[in-house]
Amino acid sequence: xxxxxxxxxxxxxxxxxxxxxxxxxxxxxxxxxxxxxxxxxxxxxxxxxxxxxxxxxxxxxxxxxxxxxxxxxxxxxxxxxxxxxxxxxxxxxxxxxxxxxxxxxxxxxxxxxxxxxxxxxxxxxxxxxxxxxxxxxxxxxxxxxxxxxxxxxxxxxxxxxxxxxxxxxx
Length: 170
Fold this sequence. Notes:
Layout: E1 2-3, E2 10-11, E3 13-14, E4 17-18, H1 19-22, H2 26-36, H3 44-58, H4 68-80, H5 93-112, H6 145-153, H7 159-168
Antiparallel strand pairs: 1-2, 3-4
């Protein structure tokens, strides 16, 4: 038997997980994470929107029953969603990655507070990201007019950095 600091309730250990843990939903874990940790942080306002997106898509799912298919379905659904700030386009893969990392942190918080015994989603949360965009000035010709106009447009204190990046092709 164990006592949960967060929920203030006792659970009975059965095998590798308690009866209470086997019924924990994503919504409950995220809410406990909010109540026990996030709401006291300076970044809480922004994090609340991410947590709401997680709850909207996965909230009623039992944490121990989430499969790779569920995570892939979440990724597909979120990548198809429109941005909430009104700008054109869909949610980026990086945003989905941050959401899943936050869910992983919430599950780890539940483990730290003895609500769960292991993290069932840890191995499921990788999102493939697009490679960074590369900008080629002057079709790769050295010291072309585009490069010179960019170089002349920046502040003097940035010019050495820009020159180093240009010369090392970083």
